[in-house]
From TrEMBL:
This is HlyD family secretion protein. Gene3D superfamilies: 2.40.30.170, 2.40.50.100, 6.20.50.140. Pfam families: RND-MFP_C. One of its GO terms (molecular function) is efflux transmembrane transporter activity. It comes from Actinoplanes philippinensis. Belongs to the membrane fusion protein (MFP) (TC 8.A.1) family.
């Protein structure tokens, strides 16, 4: 004898069989219906900044000031710390003074060369001979390469060029100014991004080396979650998949998206795990670096599928499985075609129709 109860949520119906001793034996059947079939994988993770910058002075020196501390929120371009820049400032002033002098010498050399060229042209005119005084002036102004007395024209040039020499001095002085300015700029640290100072590695008076990290700055305005998934789940993960994140000490659930799956796993000696990075769709404002989180990623979903509870489908292999179909007061096994096998439901692609009843668990 079978007694069938009313329908309940999820298409499940209760039934009672009576055994040979008259005792009731419960049989729970489920009705094949249409709905979503989903597959999720879950793990734990931690909140981290999307970007962390290690900031260092580009020159060695003594720390002169520190304007921030760990936990300080800063804006892009804000000054964070500086070295004593007395020597660097003096070096820049000296280099600029040398450049000014070099440019003055170059201007004078060009003026003299221009005058000497005009005099040499006059000397070269037919019927004219350079006087000894004119020849001496030309040689003094432009060197051996300048015009020589008309009587000695045609001999090879063995001297230097004062204009070229002055130009080289200007170039060297300009380079010195550039290096001095770069050294002065290297005595100051400014924030390249808006964020939160994670660590400050020194204090006023400390000696620091060039390139040694002094401040660590995290982009806490674009927080993300990093989680490690076991190898068994990692194969189904891909960038773009929808996810949810639940934070510790909070009942709120936030939507997120997988943005990166590490191509190589790491082993702890027992399991191989793959790192996954998830971005919040709308991150909360009070996220903390290192805050623990529960992560769930949807790796598969079929909408409007003909489905039965996954516990009702046995011996799944090669796209088929077996259900225990309930017909009247008896049950019979039936092979069905299986699609997506979800966490709660399994998609049935053939062998059942909507409304058919199967034993929920057997």
């Amino acid at each position: 004898m079978i007694v069938v109860g009313g329908a309940v949520a999820g298409g499940v119906i209760g039934a009672l069989n009576r055994d040979s001793g008259g005792r009731p034996a419960a049989i729970v059947v489920a009705v094949a219906d249409r709905g979503a079939v989903t597959v999720d994988v879950a793990t734990t993770g931690a909140v981290e900044p999307a970007t962390t910058r290690s900031l260092a002075f580009t020159v060695a020196g003594t720390v002169g000031s520190v304007q921030v501390r760990a936990g300080s929120r800063v804006s892009k371009g804000q000054k964070l710390a500086a070295l004593d820049a007395t020597d660097a400032t003096d070096d820049l002033a000296d280099a600029r003074s040398s450049l000014t002098e070099a440019r003055t010498r170059l201007s004078a050399a060009r003026t003299v060369a221009a005058r000497a060229t005009a005099s040499a042209t006059t000397c070269a005119r037919p019927g004219r001979t350079a006087t000894p005084a004119l020849a001496a002036g030309i040689r003094a102004a432009v060197g051996a390469r300048a015009a020589t007395p008309c009587a000695t024209r045609g001999y090879p040039d063995t001297g230097g060029d004062p204009v070229l020499t002055a130009e080289q001095q200007v170039n060297r002085a300009a380079r010195a100014v550039e290096l001095a300015q770069r050294a002065l700029d290297g005595t100051s640290l400014t924030a390249p991004i808006a964020g939160t100072v994670v660590a400050v590695e020194g204090k006023v008076g400390d000696q620091v080396r060039s390139g040694s990290t002094f401040i660590s700055l995290a982009d806490t305005y674009a927080m993300q979650v990093r989680a490690d998934f076991p190898e068994a789940d990692a194969g189904a993960l891909a960038a773009g998949q929808a996810a949810t994140v639940s934070l510790a000490d909070s009942d709120d659930v936030y939507t997120a998206e997988v943005v990166q799956v590490d191509p190589a796993g790491t082993s702890d000696g027992t399991l191989v795990r793959y790192g996954v990075v998830l971005a919040f769709a709308d991150p909360p404002a009070d996220l903390l670096v290192g805050q623990s989180a529960q992560v769930k990623v949807r790796t598969g979903e079929v909408s409007g599928a003909l489905r039965v509870p996954s516990t009702a489908v046995h011996d799944v292999s090669g796209g088929s499985g077996t259900v225990l179909l309930r017909v009247g007061n008896r049950s019979e096994e039936r092979v069905v075609a299986v699609g997506l096998r979800g966490d709660l439901y399994t998609e049935i692609t053939g062998g059942l129709e909507q409304g058919d009843q199967v034993v929920r668990s057997w």
